[in-house]
Amino acid sequence: MSIQAGWEAVIGLEIHTQLATQSKIFSGAATAFGAEPNSQACAVDLGLPGVLPVLNAEAVRMAALFGLAVGAEVALESTFDRKNYFYPDLPKGYQISQLAQPIVVGGTVAIRVGEGGKAVEKTIHLTRAHLEEDAGKSLHEDFAGMTGIDLNRAGTPLIEIVSEPEMSSAAEAVAYARKIHAMVQYLGICDGNMQEGSFRVDANVSVRRCGDTALGTRTEVKNVNSFRFLERAIDYEINRQIELIEDGGRVQQQTRLYDPDNDETRMMRTKEAADDYRYFPDPDLLPVIIAPETLRAWQASLPELPDAKAARYQASYGLSNYDAMVLTSAKQTAAFFEQTLAAMGAAGDAKLIANWVTGALAAQLNKEGLEINQSPVSADLLAQLLLRVVDNTLSNKLAKEVFDALWAGEGTPDAIIDARGLKQITDTGAIEVMVAGILAEHPDKVAEYRRGKDKLFGFFVGLVMKAAKGKANPQQLNDVLKSSLGPCGEAGGEEGTQ
Amino acid sequence: MSYHLKTLTQLRAGLASRAFSARELTASFLNRMAVHDGALNSFITQTPEQALAAADFADQRLAAGETGALLGIPYAHKDIFCTAGVRTTCASKMLSHWTAPYDATVHQKLNAAGAILLGKTNMDEFAMGSSNENSAFGVVKNPWDHAAVPGGSSGGSAAAVAARLVPIATGTDTGGSIRQPAAYCGITGIKPTYGRVSRFGMIAYASSLDQGGVLGVSAADCAVMLQVMAGHDARDSTSAPVPVPDYVAQLNQPMAGLRIGVPRQWFTEGLAVSVATRIDDALLELEALGATRVEIDLPDAELALAAYYLIAPAEASSNLSRFDGVRFGHRCDNPRDLNDLYERSRSEGFGAEVQRRILIGTYALSAGYYDAFYVRAQRARRQISAHFARAFESCDVIAGPVAPTVAFDLGAHSADPATMYLEDIYTIPVNLAGLPGMSIPVGFAGGRPVGMQLIGPAFTEGRLLAVAHHYQQHTDWHQQMPAAYREDVV
Amino acid sequence: MSLNATQLKHVAHLSRIALDEAKIPALLNDLNAILAFAGQLQDPKLDALTPMAHPLDQSQFLRADKVTEENNRTALQRGAPAVERGLFLVPKVIE
Is residue B221 part of a domain? Predict the structure, then answer.
């Protein structure tokens, strides 16, 4: 959605990323999702009297990996602070977080918005990423007049990744969020499951008239658990703010919730002056020191990240920039592509795979709302299918029919080809017989063609293909037809039949 | 059999030789508690059944030839240490019915060493106070004079040991809460270096200042107990990964050449002359034992007081937020809404002094005041710490008063809480710097005990105990007992 | 540097401590007596010092990422004022 003329939006994101540790950030309780209420909340997570936090080494390593991946400064000394406020899902009455000295400072992420020639690249700067503990959950249903508190999630390690307010559209914000989402999964530090809340995005949105330099009053949109909702929530919020100002109103600093059912944001609470978190250094935790050699080892351990992978795909496989970006946009997609390529062995054709993964497969996944690792057509099956394309058993058109059958679970590509008799006709003699028959039926059209009406070539292709029930090898058909018809007038057209 | 007149070493020897059983020993002290504690109110919870069962088990272990550092030795916990199976109240209505589902690390260690818990002692609520008058379970009397306070916040432990209701007890010290009641009750107390004893399961007042320690009759007794309690704990990030020396073996290290620093700023008009005189006598005694007295500078005591009374409440205001009536502890009846639940549960559950400190602490951390109060207080803390570092360039141990006066009368400061804070002026700097400190009895003034404070560089508990031990080898102040509690009970 | 009634009410709200109106003057008196000590802290000699958050100059040790705590819900909720189906209950929170 484009923004109304004369206005611009300023967007910054805060992304809460749950780190994929086994145990919590300050206790030895498990972090698994979906357990019985409070069965994974130990004395430390409950904030019982006398208990103390002890920091999980893996949470530190994972936060540092993120910092290294975005080219940030990973602080060799960072500290924990307490953020004090009362809320039932916050057991201690304070959240342990990092304010004064976060573990990750700065960093950048490159995003690309738009497709093809209109694509624009942009660099988004990160302000910081800090370690903190997650809160529990409040369950408002089920109890008359009461709220139930489940503290299983309390103490799950998070990094809160804070961007500079540098995005100017919902599309940019989504591209940035997707990029971060891809990176944390490449790094193996987050499972990326947005439905389960492993990756939660809050958007700070403000608008101003083009040319204004001062920032407008911002609102914070919370509770956005998919990229699609993120885009809609920001678009809604931008328009709401513009309309409000144009109607003579003023944007109030608020926290707003996105309601996907009604596709709107609504006020959760106003930010009062009373919000006073009284941050101070947590006296139960000492400064976290990372040795320079440890940091170097972590740097060396970084996996290949999306941008590097995309560059490699272009250089090694000759893929287009667009294909390389799409294939590397998620770790699973890149893995699927690489598995398919490997499974095809020597006959592997990266461009062909790229076309299928970004084309038919992506469309079908999107249609059914599936992730690529849930695809009924596995990388192995796709490889078997594409081998039949490479060896000319199947035309692209037939391959699509086999793909649909694979998706429906009808067996292996070869079994489907056999069962449906989809094998391509590659016998030149048989094609010549069919071509001769068609030309004999249409002597007038043949004459017209020979006088120079080159558009008729396609007409003949269609008729022959129809006679072949679509199974004739298109290239062979072209060749036979061309030699049978002879030259096309003076121009002698090179019309293809793609 | 006058077990209450024996040292820990004698009791251990008697148990080991089977001269008496742990059960006899335990029963004897339980008997003293039953007879005397009605007047003193030094215990919040007594655990006679569990104690006797534990004593029987200790007897089996002793009979099997086992030796544990404290096998069969009765003791009491300040009611701030979590003990699974015995309630832990922190002397607060907030926790009056709360039993921890876990043991404090200190308790685990004492249990493992075979010590026998006789009960949990009274204290100032959440360790906030210097007189033990801020307890939801009533005031504690000083065994030397029932009109006097026992000191605080470990007042129950101090009174119980002074009356020999237990041979030894745990305490905690945030701004003087072991040393000051030890001084007021005429016993020996040690607050170790910050991080020496695990804080896990020790309910927090001010996390960067709190430290567990011991109140006993003598330095030698304290050494045995501290040996068991000290050490790094993987459950406390602030516990120090520093090896624990053999404190008992170090008791006899020589005094010759020891330089005792005496802060000239502490012997001024704020200090009662009678207290100053007793301390001077004690210093002469130490000199006679081979030590050298050097004058040192420890300025800024008032600055330390100001820093402490912002830092401690600030940390407390946050530490005590967990007492919200949701997961444990006191909850008000029929809360109208969430805010009502919070406000009434907390206002009903916390006493006046705790509320005052929460309010001060919240103020000190709040927007617009944080830099002027909290951050400045932490700068002052750095200053105090630097003063000690400089002082220890010219001495090995610092000696001085514990408190400006002897134990004051019950109610003396109740009209004006701030004046009570001045009681801590000599003890607070030690907590700010995280150093070890002791109080040892050095005589009497007006019939009430006088304590002398010994302070050392970090992790020099062994030397402090040795200095105290030498002094106690040549004096008997630590063996004196209030007359009313001297006799055996039957 | 002293506290007035309005500030006290704000601080009490942040602390979730209910104030008895009648006791506010006496409480202000007590609190301001305590805050009077703090005047010392404005001494400029402290300006250059680094704030000291911990008494010891040590760094945080780290735990290995292992699950060491089993489900102990029954024991941990034994002292809870209101529990149903494993959840802690509070008056309805309106969002």
Answer: yes
Task: Please give the Cα distance from A352 to A354 (Å, whole number).
Answer: 5
The number of distinct structural domains making up chain C is 1
Q: Which residues lie across from A17 on neighbouring strands?
A: A159, A199
List the chains bordering chain C where 3 or more Cβ pairs fall under 8 Å. Answer: A, B
Q: Tell whether C59 is covered by a domain.
A: no
The answer to whether the beta carbons of residues B224 and B175 sit under 8 Å apart is no
Query: Do A1 and A235 contact (CB within 8 A), yes or no?
Result: yes
Do residues A66 and A172 share a domain?
Answer: yes
- Which residues of B are less than 8 Å from A46 in CB distance? 327-328
Res A273 pLDDT > 70: no
- The pLDDT confidence band at residue C95, using thresholds 50, 70 and 90, is low
Task: Identify whether the C-beta of residue A40 lies closer than 8 Å to the C-beta of residue C71.
Answer: yes
Question: Is the CB of B366 less than 8 angstroms away from the CB of A278?
Answer: yes
Q: Does the beta-carbon distance from A86 to B200 stay under 8 Å? A: no
A52 contact residues in B (CB cutoff 8 A) = 199-200, 235-238
Same domain, A375 and A448: no
Query: Which residues form the domain of A185?
Result: 11-205+272-295
B10-60 pLDDT tens trace: 999 999 999 999 999 999 999 999 999 999 999 999 999 999 999 999 999
Q: In Å, how far are A202, A233, B64, B260, C81 from C94, measured between CA atoms? A: 20, 22, 63, 63, 21
Q: Which residues in chain C have their CB less than 8 angstroms from residue A145's CB?
A: 91-92
Q: Give, in degrees to the nearest 5, the angle at Cα A189 between A184 and A191.
A: 80
Of the candidates C42, A302, A301, the residue with the CA atom closest to the CA atom of residue B375: C42
Place of tokens 């010759």: B256
**End position of a domain, from candidates A420, A443, A474:** A420
- A391 and A290, same domain (yes or no): no
- Mean pLDDT, residues A95-109 taken together: 98
Interface test with B, best of C24, C52, C84 (most B CBs within 10 A): C52
Considering only the beta carbons, identify the residue of C30, C38, C88 that sits closest to B417. C30
Q: In this structure, what CATH number is given to the domain that contains residue C10?
A: 1.10.20
* Probe site for chain B from C37, C60, C72, C83 (most B CB atoms < 10 A): C37
**Range of weakest confidence among A283-292, A380-389, B92-101, C33-42:** C33-42
pLDDT in the model for residue A382: 96
What confidence tier does A491 reach under pLDDT thresholds 50, 70, 90? very low
Pairwise CA distance, residues B138 & B146, whole Å: 14
The span from the CA of B245 to the CA of B232, in Å, is 13
What is the pLDDT at residue A498? 38
Report the catalytic residues of B. 78, 153, 177
Provide the mean pLDDT of chain A: 92
Considering only CA atoms, give the Rg of chain A: 29
The residue range of the domain holding B208 is 3-251+437-485
- DSSP-assigned states of every residue in A262-308: TTEEEEEEE--TT-----EE-TTSPPEE--HHHHHHHHHTPPPPHHH
Contact call for residues A233 and A203 (beta carbons, < 8 A): yes
8 Å CB contact of C41 and B346? no
Chains that touch B (3 or more CB pairs under 8 A): A, C
* Secondary structure E strands in B291-396: 292-296
**Residues A461 and A377 occupy one common structural domain:** no
pLDDT band at A394 (very low <50, low <70, confident <90, very high): confident
Smallest CA-to-CA distance from A159 within A83, A97, A226, A203 is with: A97
The strand pair at B116-121 and A108-113 is best described as: unpaired
Residue of C nearest to B325 (CA): C81
Buried b (16+ CB within 10 A) or exposed e, B230-259: bbebebbbbbbebebeebbebbeeebeebe
Nearest-10 crossing angle of helices A456-467, A428-441: 120
Q: What pLDDT sits at residue C1? A: 67
